Amino acid sequence: MTEKNLRFAKLLVLVNAAVPATLLAWDAWHHKLGANPVNFAIRTTGMLALIFLVLTLAVTPLRKLTGLNWIIFSRRTLGLYAFFYACLHFLIFFSMDRGFNVSGTLSEMVRRKYLIVGSIALFVMIPLAVTSTNAMIKRLGGKRWRALHRLAYVAAIAGVIHYYMQVKADVRQPLAFAAVLGVLLGYRLVEFWRQRKPAPASAAAKPKPGA
Amino acid sequence: MKEPNKISAKEITPPATYFNRRKFIETGILAASAVATGIVYRTLNHPAAGKVKTAKLAGLTTATTNAADGFRVDEAQTSFDNITHYNNFYEFSTDKEGVASAAANFDTKGWTVSVEGLVRKPKVFALDDLLKISPPEERIYRMRCVEAWSMVIPWAGFSLSKLIDVVEPTDDAKYVAFETLLDTARMPGQRSGVLDWPYVEGLRMDEAMHPLTLLASGIYGNALPPQDGAPLRLVVPWKYGFKGIKSIVKIKLVATQPRMTWNEAAPNEYGFFANVNPEVDHPRWSQATEQRIGESGRRPTLPFNGYAEQVAHLYSGMDLRKIF
Questions:
Q1: Which of A58, A71, B8, B249 fits a 20 to 30 Å CA distance from B153?
Q2: For residue B322, which of B286, B285, B268, B278 has the smallest C-alpha distance?
Q3: Contacts of A96 in chain B (CB under 8 A)
Q4: Would the CB atoms of A97 and B298 count as touching at under 8 Å?
Q5: Model confidence, pTM
Q6: ipTM score of complex
Q7: Angle A37-66/A73-92 helices, nearest 10 degrees?
Q8: Is residue A188 part of a domain?
Q9: What is the extent of the structural domain holding A157?
């Protein structure tokens, strides 16, 4: 992968990930969001946040399985788009649905379990977005940065649960998300377990009873 | 001697052209991929659209009674387009915006409705005969969905009580049970196990006999489109929308409280009475406000959906927080 091709690939991801937001805004402007436009926009942005979270978490397994190391470049962009769509999701709810009523929004959020779970997903993404720059990676150090960014798993799990909890009866779509997420997280568990396996010979690694 | 590997200077692409070509190809790929992404987005996520046309109802009258009876709500009516493209009708699709297209070719030819049970004159009505019981009246009702959105719909039909009177219920008849068509070929949504088919609903006798309780065969002066419950549906304006069972094939008068589909799917969320009540929240969301389709912002939900004056007495002495 040449430097130039990589730059172009970055641009491709950047532009394509913005297409849904652009079309959503275009449709909203032209009153083409159907009978319940606010609900449509909330649902669409929520779904997009989940899709981009899943895509973000798919980069590492794909990279290891295919050996295409260069695709790692897309992880940050995809992750930031997930955060972007999640923020949009919340902002449309807060502004168009709740009419900018802060106390009303807060009391609603505290009383509804699915909103609490959704808020967790959104909040854990904030530090991830803030520490997404190269400078922050350097400042935190690779190890700590990687540990912090495991919060992405929390965001994705909470996001899927948040979706599942508000469906009335047809849970097929949230379950499909859960299945894909299960595969992606399962892959990491297996990897983690495989990397630990060669080490049991060392006595230091063995947990002592009562320790 | 000629050197075979030597490329003459004029054959080398000048750098300017080379970079232009790269730019050109990149722009092409970028545009093509953006279009492809846009098509995928549009395919997976589009609001419903399309023309709906059904026959004009003959002999439609406006209800002679006045607004105080609740027959004609004086609020802006929801557009025909929205009423026909935003439907909860799981027999066709669980996607409210997908019902219209999934139900478009629903065939109601030869429809019959069996009215049976604790009655002196049970009868299987051909639809046309049933509709002859009384000329259709226009009733403009609020419709409040349990999902916290609402509409104002100009229905056409007549009070259910008129049909019940025809079959002469016995004194043992205390409830009315309703059933939707079960036909996986015509109602593809019934192939999924999302709900326990066929859809069933029920009313207490006094609710069923209330003049507001409507057996509807049309909206906006035309026959009901499939997505709104063709050819015959129930409308109980002071209850959540799911009580308004659609595409009815059976009405049975019974002695005990009948089963209802949503109650069996989630007993803690959907009660038998399901009266619109801003004070009793759905366990997962508030019922205090609603999104009126076609309006921006939310409006407060009214007790009994604004029909308290007409129906609250039916429930006097009942704790509607416990019996919801």
A1: B249
A2: B268
A3: 296-297
A4: yes
A5: 0.86
A6: 0.84
A7: 160
A8: no
A9: 3-181
